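Just wondering, can you check both lines?
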Amino acid sequence: MSALVFQMPGTARHDREMAIQAKKNLSKTTDPVERLRLQCLARGSAGIKGLGRVFRIMDDDNSRTLDFKEFVKGLNDYAMMIDKEEAQEIFRIFDKDGSGTIDFDEFLVTLRPPMSNARKEIIMQAFRKLDKTGDGVITIEDLRGVYNAKHHPKYQNGDWTEDQVFRAFLDNFDSPYDKDGKVTTEEFMNYYAGVSASIDTDVYFIIMMKNAWKL
C-alpha cells in the first residue's frame, strides 16, 4: 500500500463543499438534532469528532456520560449556536431513560450522518483489509503487513520511526477522546461518516474508497 492513505483523495475539497451545504441547510431545518449535526458538519468532516473531544474534556470522572450542565458547557465551549431551549430538547431526546445524564458515545453515533448500506459495506471492506489479525481492532501490528511506512516524508527525513508513522496513521481514525493506538470498527465508521457526508453519490464514495485502499 502506498502513501496514498495519508492523503485521502479529494477530502479537502469535499470538506469545503459539505461545509457550505451544511450552512445552507441550517436555515431550512427546525429539527434540533439535525441543526446540531449541520453545525458540526459546517466545520468539515471532523466536526462531530471535535465535539466528542470537547465532551471528553468535560467528563472529569471518566463516566462517559454528561449531565445537562456539562452538555451545555460543551456546546458553548465548541461555539455551537444553540439556545437553552433547543439544548434542553436535544438533551431530552438522548436521555431516553430520564436519568438526567446522556451517554456521549451513543450521542455521537446518533449525530453521525446516516449512510447507505453500500457505503457501510465498502468502509468495512477497508477495515477488514487493515485488520490483518481479524480481531475487530486495527493496531500497529496489523499495519506492518499492509502498509509501507517508508514512503512517509517524516520517515524519509529521519524525524519518525516506522512505529511513529503507524501511530500517526491510526490517530487519524482513533476517537479524539481516547487515542490508544487501537482503532475499532465504530471509530473507523465514525471517521468515514464525516467524509461520507461530503460526498453526494454512493458511486463516487465507493470509487474513492477503492482507490484509497486498493480494494
About this structure: The beta strands are 65-67, 101-103, 137-138, 183-184. The CA atoms of residues 72 and 200 lie 32 Å apart.
